[in-house]
Amino acid sequence: MMKSLAEFVKQKRKEAELTQEDFAARAGVALTVIRKIEQGKGNLNLEKANQVLKMFGHELAPADSKELSPPDKDFRP
C-alpha cells in the first residue's frame, strides 16, 4: 500500500536524523511547510512540496483525470 505524503516525509526525515527545523533549512522551505506536510494538511503549494520531495529523489505531478479513472470494462485497445 502506498504511504501518504505525510508518513513518507516524516519517516524519511527521521531516518536522516533531522529535526523539522533542520530539514526545512536543508530543503530551502519554511518550517511551516514541513509541518503542514507532516500533519497531512491539504492546502500545500505543489512547488514547495516538490522542494521537500526532491531531497529524497521524488516529486509530485498533476495527474490526468483519465489516469485516475477506473478502466472501462468494455474498452479494448
Summary?
The chain has 77 residues and is an all-alpha fold. The chain has helices at 5-15, 20-27, 31-38, 46-53, 65-68.
From the structure above, extract its key features:
single chain, 77 residues, mainly alpha, 434 Repressor (Amino-terminal Domain), 5 helices, globular
Descriptive report:
The protein is mainly alpha-helical and 77 residues long. The protein has helices spanning 5-15, 20-27, 31-38, 46-53, 65-68. The chain is built from five helices and no strands. It has one domain: lambda repressor-like DNA-binding domains (434 Repressor (Amino-terminal Domain)). Helix 1 (5-15) packs across helix 3 and helix 2 (20-27) crosses helix 3 (31-38). The model has no long low-confidence stretch (mean pLDDT 80). 51% of the residues lie in helices and 0% in strands.
Over the alpha carbons, how many angstroms does the gyration radius reach? 16 Å
User: What does the main sheet amount to?
Assistant: none
Number of strands: 0
What proportion strand? under 5%
Given as residue ranges, the uncertain stretches (5+ residues, pLDDT < 50) are: none
- Highest-level CATH class: Mainly Alpha
Instruction: Estimate nothing, just give the exact number of structural domains.
Output: 1
What's the CATH topology name? 434 Repressor (Amino-terminal Domain)
The CATH homology group name: lambda repressor-like DNA-binding domains
Assign the CATH architecture. Answer: Orthogonal Bundle
The helicity comes to 40-55%
The SSE string, one letter per element, is HHHHH
